[in-house]
Structure formats: C-alpha cells, structure tokens
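Example protein
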Amino acid sequence: MMMPRSLVSSADIGLNDIRLMTSNARKLLPLIQPSTKKTLNHLSGRTVATFFCEPSTRTRCSFELAAKILGAHTIDVSPEQSSLIKGETIADTIETLVTMGVDAIVIRHSQDGLPQALAEKYGKRIAIINAGDGITDHPTQGLLDVLTLIQQYGSLEALQGKKMTILGNITYSRVVGSHLRLIPQLGVAIQLVAPDFFMPSIVEREEWHKQYGVTFTEVLEEGLNDADIVMPLRIQSERMDEFEQSLIGRYSQGYQLNHLRVAMSCKPGFVVMHPGPVNYHVEITEELANDPHISLIRQQVACGVALRMAALHWCIES
C-alpha cells in the first residue's frame, strides 16, 4: 500500500498536479447528475473523516459525497459532539482517527497553517486535506474553479491570456490565497479590486505583485475593464471587527456587481463566478448571480464534487 499524500497548500500544487486532477475530475463529472446513481469502487474499503470546525455546506457536503461515490466509508467528526468539548486536543483527535485506521481526514479550521502542521506530524500515516484554514488557503476551491473554467473554455490551454478580476474583502479571503498560487500557473492574469479598507497592506501588495504578478485597483470600472472572469468574494462579516462591519453598506453601494456594471466594463462573453455562499445584494445581485447566460456558480458546485473525488483519489491511491 502506498504512503498517503496530503493536500494542504496551494503553493505545493504544480501545473502537472493541476493537469492530472482536473483531467481526472472531468472524467468523473458525468456522475454528478441528479438522475445518476452510479458508484465506483476506487476507494472501496477506505475511510474518510470530515472534521469541520467552521460552518460549511458546499465543501463539507461535496467531500462527503465525493468519498461515498468513490466507495469509501465516511465519518463526520463534529467538534460539538466530540471530545474536544471535554478538553481533548486536535492532535489527540487526529491520533485517535489514525489509530482507528482512518485513511484521510478533511479539515477546516480557523487557525492559519493548522492543516500544514498536522500534515508534517501525521502525513506519513494519514492523508490530511485542507478544506480551508483561517484566511490563508483553500486548495480544492482553487482547483475546482480551474476545473469550472476548463469546462467553460474547453481546455487548460484555452485559459492562456485570460484576465480574472477578484473583488471584495481581499484581506480576509483564503480563496484569494489559493487562487494567487494556482491561477497564474495557467497564464491567467489576476487583478484584485477593493476599497482601501478591504485591501491588504502596501507591503503585502508589493510582495504579491512581485511573486504572482497580480495587480491592484480601488476603482471597480478599471478592474472590470476587459475582464473575462469576474469573481466577487463573500463579505466575511464574521471575521471583521465592529468598525469593518460598519463599512459593508459602503462597500455594497460602490462595488456590488449587477448587470449594468458588468455590461458597461467587461468584454463580451465574460462569466461570473463566486466561491459561495452568496450574500445577495451585498457583493452581487440575485439576478446576476442566477443569470444562466453569465453565471457559472451552479457549475462550480458540480465541479466541486468531481474535483474532490479526484483529490481524494490523488491523496489516498496515487
């Protein structure tokens, strides 16, 4: 049996890994249909545990569904109903799961870098998969968005030269962390758009520009100009202090996406994405988010299941 492989940082995912996982996920996409009851035995006899210490619908459910379609057993380790509330540490919980013979644990936590630290300690015995850590990274979100774009444009190579605009509270977004590390590898230019109060520091901006080639603007129209792909981020009020929360209305007034704003600035054929969940009429109108001619949000959800199937196989059986 091969040693498990962890998936904890987008920085460790190279172009060959992107190509392999998205290629495998595309083959699995036909299974993600309401009328399809087909299951596989790729992970038959394996056990995958989900350990979400922050709320989640899409990521948690898609990982659980992905594991079940592949034939794995699944365990949901709910923090509220585990021994964590009795004082058990996360390390104790992981050690318990390893001892029980669990093959992979999918973890989401508010602590930056926790999945990486767990992989360093336990990675030779169990696959650790990062389902979002703090404001740092969300590898499978980045990968599923790549898959969604491949489906939209036909191939990985077709993404060369595209422009992707990401806007919102850049400071608190782990989605930005994953996309900066993955998307530029595809030849896609990224521009980040936000008012000054939602922008990272000048020093961070300079570092990101130097490392990833990303550009910044506080002017929405400038950011949307000639954009092929537009992705508003969820305004994460739960991570903001009281002053930052007071600025949400101001942000919505100046940066909320609607049909008029995108039509005036984006190039013909542009698409809109969103990592979810959507705060309608805060970062985007409900009409635009659900416009089937423009929005890829539903496609992202389906691609999330297929990509996480490919990621689980990559971690456990590759």
User: Anything to note?
Assistant: The chain has a mean pLDDT of 93. Residues 226 and 267 are 5 Å apart (CA to CA). The domain at 10-138+301-316 is CATH 3.40.50.1370 (Rossmann fold). The chain has two domains: 10-138+301-316, 152-296.
